[in-house]
Amino acid sequence: MTARMDTRFADLKAEGRPALVTYFMGGDPDYETALAIMKALPGAGADVIELGMPFSDPMADGPAIQKAGRRALDGGQTLEKTLLMAKAFRENDDETPIVLMGYYNPIHSFGVERFLDAALDAGIDGLIVVDLPPEMDVELCNPAVEKGINFIRLATPTTDDKRLPAVLANTSGFVYYVSMTGITGSAIVDTDKVEAAVKRIKGHTDLPICVGFGVKTAEHARIIGRAADGVVVGTAIVNQIAGSLDADGRASADTVESVATMVRGLASGIAAARLAQAG
Amino acid sequence: MNEPLKPNSFRSGPDEDGLFGIFGGRFVAETLMPLILELQEAWEWAKGDAGFRAELEHLNAHYTGRPSPLYFAERLTEELGGAKIYFKRDELNHTGSHKINNCLGQILLARKMGKTRIIAETGAGQHGVASATLAARFGLPCVIYMGATDVERQAPNVFRMRLLGAEVKPVSAGHGTLKDAMNEALRDWVTNVDSTYYMIGTAAGPHPYPELVREFQSVIGREAREQIMAAEGKLPDMLVAAVGGGSNAIGLFHPFLDDPDVAMVGVEAGGKGLEGEEHCASLTAGRPGVLHGNRTYLLQDDDGQIKEGHSISAGLDYPGIGPEHSWLKESGRVEYVPILDREAVDAFQLLTRTEGIIPALEPAHALAEVVKRAPTMGRDKIIVMNLCGRGDKDVQSVANYLGMEV
């Protein structure tokens, strides 16, 4: 496996705080702006970057990420350009893990082998592909793991103890716990249930557990971060981008900085997670 | 020599992973996976349970009105001057199309699984009406997702669904057609996974949907087989059916797949022509990809983004196709051809005037292919076409197309 992911989570463990995992859509609202946002994320406090691969039919996403994908595609984003973007980011940052997140068809269309080679070349550390459950591991998960790219699985409230071993079997990097049955951007979760679920999954694996779906504010990040090894924020960042655009949907002078400001706020919540617990 | 290979069957799929060759599978989010496995268990139970079968047969007979007639279209046969044309008249079913065959089977499964809420997607509204009808019959709340464009062009069906007590939710994402409605139904399902049964309307989606929808629709082909033997004492030479997602076609074809002398033609929506973007001919003009839970032929661009299709028929307006059809195409067992909007409207008018039957625009596509084929075949040959829906819902669309006022 690429070392960046394991190194990052080991360092954070030593530091005694959870990871801030930030999602945004590759190419939203355009290639250059999205690349500038990506470059600004680590400095603002993002520990892991999830880079969205836009897809025309995002079945697991709510309206915010649907629209972000549409903006990116309308701006001419393709899977090839998303990989290029990661590669451009790597020129100045060889430490922040990058996880590509999206749906299978663009990868299927690109060709699995060709995609994995390009992903390695671009410095990708992991993949999250929503519509590939363990039953379909032969498609992409197994070839990815063979090439040394982490395949990060989603575990959900419907993944019971009986099913959990199958879900964890070929997972590496971290486990992404989906805090609710629902789509991205839904309302905040029952945090007690999330804590219980994280503990349940920890009984089955030593991998870090990151929690996403419904985490919108620094306060959410602080609360979720008490139990989890990482907190994923996506829709809130995507909404921040959307809110910064001009009337024609183009990036404004403020777009990159407004995202960075928001991420700094989330990072402060993350930093407070374990302090609060200690106190 | 070693033992001879077992005779090849076209009727044995899918395998235990839900695959027809490379097509099909279970490409769904983890949240849905346990439910898909639970559905599979319920389906395995249903296949072996005499009580389930008996209840389905009873409702098919007394609620839907099966068997549907196999009708010899004498005037049309004379008009075309070739093969004898028979219609399998599933447009006479309760609710006006073949869709109810599938919905009946699925609602019995939903009840078995203890689900208390039904959701469905619909294009032309025929599946939505059938779903709403059975939700009413079984006393379950029902939400129908329908593309905003389709809500507009299929207004009578929208009203019918509402009368039946269903909530119709227009979907404006994308171009507001069937694919977008299916995305939204999947989003609802993933959110309400505990209570909700997703009644997929065509022989597509994650395994086991393509198989179970096919089995519930195969009543069409089983009846047609008996009926043509009774009428003609032999099997037909050709079967013709429209394919959108492909459920009426697979229902007619499947019981005949291992009869090598029965040719089969699936008719796709050629829209305004395959040279442009405005068609829905996934098998003729698409390539394999993954969408809505299965690998199948899809209309997609070079980047794997799914295209919006076009057809005058809302029921064929889907950029994918059931996975078994993709396999039947690649294996060469079934031939798939496109028919243009214009040809379908011509056939619609022809049938109306020669036989006094107003067909839905979906089977009007199949009929347009029959119009091409029948004259090239001998008078001793037999074509069975699936007349899978009635055209009341399409009167406005046809009037618009012809520039006439209703």
From TrEMBL, chain A:
E.C. designation(s): 4.2.1.20
Protein name per its UniProtKB record: Tryptophan synthase alpha chain
Family note: Belongs to the TrpA family.
Catalytic activity: (1S,2R)-1-C-(indol-3-yl)glycerol 3-phosphate + L-serine = D-glyceraldehyde 3-phosphate + L-tryptophan + H2O
Database matches in NCBIfam families: trpA (TIGR00262)
Pfam family name, one: Trp_syntA
Uppermost EC category: lyase
Keywords: Amino-acid biosynthesis, Aromatic amino acid biosynthesis, Lyase, Tryptophan biosynthesis
Record-level GO cellular component terms: cytosol
Source organism per UniProt: Pararhizobium mangrovi
Molecular function via GO: tryptophan synthase activity
Stored InterPro entries: Aldolase_TIM, RibuloseP-bd_barrel, Trp_synthase_alpha_AS, Trp_synthase_suA
HAMAP family: Trp_synth_alpha (MF_00131)
Family annotation (SUPFAM superfamilies): Ribulose-phoshate binding barrel (SSF51366)
Active-site residues per Swiss-Prot or TrEMBL entry: E50 (proton acceptor), D61 (proton acceptor)
Self-association and partners: Tetramer of two alpha and two beta chains.
TrEMBL record, chain B:
Pathway: Amino-acid biosynthesis; L-tryptophan biosynthesis; L-tryptophan from chorismate: step 5/5
Stretch forming the signal peptide: none
Cofactor(s) needed for function: pyridoxal 5'-phosphate
Catalytic activity: (1S,2R)-1-C-(indol-3-yl)glycerol 3-phosphate + L-serine = D-glyceraldehyde 3-phosphate + L-tryptophan + H2O
Single Gene Ontology MF annotation: tryptophan synthase activity
Keyword terms of this UniProt record: Amino-acid biosynthesis, Aromatic amino acid biosynthesis, Lyase, Pyridoxal phosphate, Tryptophan biosynthesis
Modified residues (N6-(pyridoxal phosphate)lysine): K99
The Tryptophan synthase beta chain-like PALP domain, residue ranges: 65-389
EC number: 4.2.1.20
InterPro entries recorded: Trp_synth_b_CS (IPR006653), Trp_synth_beta (IPR006654), Trp_synth_beta/beta-like (IPR023026), TrpB-like_PALP (IPR001926), TrpB-like_PALP_sf (IPR036052)
Domain of life: Bacteria
Pfam family, one: PALP
NCBIfam families: trpB (TIGR00263)
Family, as annotated: Belongs to the TrpB family.
Quaternary data: Tetramer of two alpha and two beta chains.
Protein role: The beta subunit is responsible for the synthesis of L-tryptophan from indole and L-serine.
Protein name as catalogued: Tryptophan synthase beta chain
Species the sequence originates in: Pararhizobium mangrovi
